[in-house]
């Protein structure tokens, strides 16, 4: 009984893993790590939200004070007097009391400078946004920008100066230094990696601890931007503009298109959780070492036989059937595996001999396949010839049919030939039906002319091919002159021609690239003078057309694609000629191809 128990490999493996206890320890460790990460994430997120609320409220109060200051200044009787000698000491007093104001301007409603505290800093453009807003009676606040002379962050606040009747008689503008308040905004107590910055609606830095990023760098492609504006549903941990995982919170500054962002690196926030993770991994590693010691104790009964079986398998893979034979006197699963492996080796040896006998037959079949493929290409090349030949066959077949029909109506056919006559007529009708089907394929339909707008047919064709372009990540651009004259043509045929050209271009670009469609007037010089035509161009950035293929690309059934029919460009050429136009191309190896569809304009067609 004891011998049977220990000879069972399944029991040995069960004892090994039960003693090592890897599964319970892994479950407990994973649960502990996950719980710690969730608690830390929630705690840090709340802390970041509180900091963002405090900073946004501080900036909002400060901005409200500056707006109130300017409203009071603009509403004073001194500024309403519009007298520079009275305004100058008043403004100087304001600048002395409030250190944040760098420059004051007082302008008339027409933009004439009445007073400038720093006249050496240049003139004023009457079209500036702040002047237009305040001249209309609005209080205006600009975006923060970097003053190149003072090398500090500033912004404009402007307010209207109203007369006794409440009408705008001038504008007061103050250049406000944001350095002091922004230094307080940037200071955050969030470890070594915590930071606070300010961006506008486009994600451009307005305030940042690194001055080189201000008004230059942008977070529009980062997870920070997506979290601020909700363009995507993000987790609490996301990638910031430095491509580093962070936790963050954001708040909009009231009344402004400014967004305050507070973030902290994930690695710093999860430092304690990472330490717990290391402890759990250490415990798991210790357990693995213990399990390895137990496995080593059983190696003589498990590992050695498996190693011998592995060597035999390698010999079998090399075709060394003599050294692939293994034998064992064991009665457990290892012994059963040895027996199964030996049986498999014998079957593989027999099959190897059988395959060697079939190699010659396989090579012969491969040659037949190659000949069949060559024949297929020859038949495709003969398709064009067949289309012309059917026209020559149809006439005599029709004559023969009419002759037999007249014979049937004028001459009495003996019963013994009646069946032969019926078979002959049936075969003639069968040939005629086959010819008609082929001619319907080879013979183009006559165009149904109507007034067509070039932009409309281009956009309709793009609707058809755009899914394929999106699948290939191909950039599609369109350049159509809105003043183009209309053309007279078959809307369906012209649309089919453009779709064929666009699909042909997309198939030339396997991934990405650019498909450009344009329409413009063409003034070609001919012997009869200048010829005005509409030119629709379809360009790609594919490999171009090979030199050996350029004389054949408009031939029916010619194609360089494995699955192509070779009819696309031939159809386009037929449609172009049916409309009195032509199709040409320009191709540069390695740089792409442009197909040019020339069509007569409406006044020339009329």
Automatic annotation (TrEMBL):
Query: Which InterPro entries does the UniProt record give?
Result: dCache_1, HAMP_dom, HATPase_C_sf, HATPase_dom, His_kinase_dom, HisK_dim/P_dom, HisK_dim/P_sf, Sensor-like_sf
Tell me which GO cellular component terms the UniProt record holds. plasma membrane
Note the SMART domains from the entry. Answer: HAMP, HATPase_c, HisKA
Task: Describe the location of the HAMP domain by residue ranges.
Answer: 300-353
Q: List where in the cell it is found.
A: Cell membrane
- Gene3D superfamilies to which the protein is assigned, alphabetical: 1.10.287.130, 6.10.340.10, Histidine kinase-like ATPase, C-terminal domain (3.30.565.10), PAS domain (3.30.450.20)
**Stretches assigned to coiled coil:** 345-372
Which terms are listed as keywords in the entry?
Answer: ATP-binding, Cell membrane, Coiled coil, Kinase, Membrane, Nucleotide-binding, Phosphoprotein, Transferase, Transmembrane, Transmembrane helix, Two-component regulatory system
Which residue intervals define the domain Histidine kinase in the entry? 388-603
Chief localisation class: membrane
* Protein name listed in UniProt: histidine kinase
**The species this protein was found in:** Abyssobacteria bacterium (strain SURF_5)
């Amino acid at each position: 009984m004891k011998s049977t128990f220990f000879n069972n490999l399944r029991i040995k493996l069960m004892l090994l893993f039960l003693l090592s206890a890897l599964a319970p320890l892994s479950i407990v460790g994973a649960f502990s790590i996950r719980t710690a990460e969730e608690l830390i994430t929630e705690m840090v997120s709340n802390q970041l939200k509180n900091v963002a609320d405090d900073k946004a409220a501080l900036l909002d109060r400060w901005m409200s004070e500056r707006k109130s200051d300017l409203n009071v200044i603009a509403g004073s009787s001194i500024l309403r007097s519009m007298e520079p000698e009275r305004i100058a000491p008043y403004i100087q007093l304001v600048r002395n009391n409030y250190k944040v104001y760098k420059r004051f301007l007082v302008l008339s409603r027409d933009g004439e400078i009445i007073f400038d505290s720093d006249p050496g800093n240049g003139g004023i453009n009457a079209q500036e946004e702040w002047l237009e807003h305040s001249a209309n009676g609005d209080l205006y606040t600009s975006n923060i920008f970097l003053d190149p002379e003072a090398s500090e962050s500033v912004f404009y606040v402007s307010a209207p100066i109203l007369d006794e009747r409440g009408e705008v008689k001038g504008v007061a503008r103050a250049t406000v230094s944001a350095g002091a308040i922004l230094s307080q905004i940037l200071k955050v107590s969030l470890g070594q990696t915590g930071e606070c910055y300010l961006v506008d609606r486009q994600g451009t830095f307005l305030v940042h601890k690194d001055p080189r990023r201000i008004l230059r760098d942008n977070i529009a492609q980062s997870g920070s931007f997506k979290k601020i504006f909700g363009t995507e549903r993000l987790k609490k941990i996301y990638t910031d503009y430095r491509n580093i995982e962070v936790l963050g919170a954001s708040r909009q500054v009231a009344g402004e298109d400014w967004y305050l962002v507070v973030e902290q690196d994930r690695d710093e926030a999860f430092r304690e959780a990472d330490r717990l993770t290391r402890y759990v991994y250490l415990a798991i590693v210790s357990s693995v070492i213990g399990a390895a010691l137990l496995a080593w104790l059983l190696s003589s009964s498990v590992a050695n036989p498996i190693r011998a079986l592995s060597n035999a398998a390698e010999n079998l893979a090399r075709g060394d059937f003599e050294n692939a034979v293994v034998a064992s006197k064991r009665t457990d699963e290892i012994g059963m595996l040895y027996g199964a492996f030996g049986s498999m080796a014998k079957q593989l040896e027999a099959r190897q001999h059988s395959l060697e006998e079939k190699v010659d037959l396989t090579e012969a079949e491969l040659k037949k396949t190659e000949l069949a493929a060559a024949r297929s290409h020859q038949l495709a090349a003969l398709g064009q010839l067949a289309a012309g030949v059917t026209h020559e066959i149809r006439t005599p077949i029709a004559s023969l049919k009419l002759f037999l029909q007249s014979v049937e109506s004028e001459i009495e056919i003996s019963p013994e030939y009646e069946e032969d006559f019926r078979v002959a007529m049936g075969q003639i009708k069968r040939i005629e039906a086959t010819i008609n089907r082929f001619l319907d394929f080879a013979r183009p339909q006559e165009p149904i002319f109507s007034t067509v707008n070039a932009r409309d047919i281009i956009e309709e064709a793009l609707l058809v091919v755009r899914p394929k372009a999106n699948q290939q990540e191909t950039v599609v651009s369109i350049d159509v002159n809105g003043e183009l004259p209309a053309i007279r043509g078959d809307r369906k045929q012209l649309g089919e021609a453009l779709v064929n050209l666009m699909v042909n271009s997309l198939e030339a670009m396997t991934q990405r690239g650019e498909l450009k469609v344009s329409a413009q007037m063409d003034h070609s010089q001919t012997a009869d003078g200048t010829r005005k035509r509409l030119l629709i161009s379809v360009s790609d950035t594919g490999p171009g057309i090979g030199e050996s293929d350029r004389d054949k690309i408009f031939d029916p059934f010619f194609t360089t694609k494995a699955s192509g029919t070779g009819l696309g460009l031939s159809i386009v050429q037929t449609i172009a000629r049916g409309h009195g136009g032509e199709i040409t191309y320009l191709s540069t190896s390695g740089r792409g191809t442009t197909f040019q569809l020339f069509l007569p304009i409406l006044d020339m067609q009329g």
